[in-house]
Specification:
The protein has 200 residues and is mainly alpha-helical. Helix content is 65%, strand content 5%. It comes from Nesterenkonia halobia.
């Protein structure tokens, strides 16, 4: 089981003539090269984490998705995971069974839809991520903290624009929906731990 291919930063040589003239600007070319270096570093980090936790790419991508959506305050259903990874619902069910058995996720009843479940990270999964990715997170924080707010605002807008440019229409629709529902989706009370039957 594999992830759908993740789009990488475009190579300058692949640009159209009009884009090439713009990319020929030293600053534009340097920005493209920096994005490619970042993309390569993130790929290497992803593969190191996958090897460290002995999971396949889809398992790690699911956990990473849950980390991001948890930070956004957004609930995640198995259907969300299926759409994000471009996998069938049956494949996602097997994937979640495997992660639940390993103690990385739990499934709890959806508060508004009896037919669905909410997928959540466990404390064990958070500890695993921190143990294997804590050094990288700290290194990134140090680089970020070294920049002033004005620099960070520009970088944030730049990266957001790149992410939007690389997303397909389905991804963009999901991003808009996530942004619109993030606040209303926040649970008002801590979620109770699931029973062993719900975790399986």
């Amino acid at each position: 089981m594999h992830d759908a291919p993740r789009p990488h930063a475009p190579e300058p040589a692949d640009a159209s003539p009009t884009d090439a003239s713009r990319a020929g600007r030293p600053a534009a070319l340097a920005a493209l090269e920096a994005v490619q270096l970042l993309d390569d570093s993130l790929d290497r980090t992803h593969h190191r984490l996958k090897s460290a936790v002995e999971m396949n790419a889809s398992d790690v991508s699911t956990l990473r998705m849950l980390v991001i959506r948890e930070r956004q305050g957004t609930r995640t259903t198995p259907q969300d995971i299926a759409e994000h990874l471009r996998l069938s619902t049956a494949t996602v069910t097997t994937l979640l069974d495997r992660l639940a058995t390993a103690g990385h996720v739990r499934r709890t009843p959806h508060p508004a839809d009896r037919r669905s479940r909410i997928v959540e990270l466990t404390d064990q999964a958070r500890s695993t991520f921190l143990r294997h990715f804590g050094g990288e997170l700290q290194a990134m924080r140090e680089v970020i903290e070294a920049r002033d707010d004005a620099d960070l605002e520009v970088v944030t807008a730049f990266l957001a624009d790149l992410a939007a440019a690389l997303a397909d229409p389905q991804d963009q629709a999901q991003t808009v929906q996530t942004a619109q529902t993030a606040q209303t989706a926040r649970p008002t009370q801590p979620t109770q731990p699931a029973s062993p039957e719900e975790d399986a």
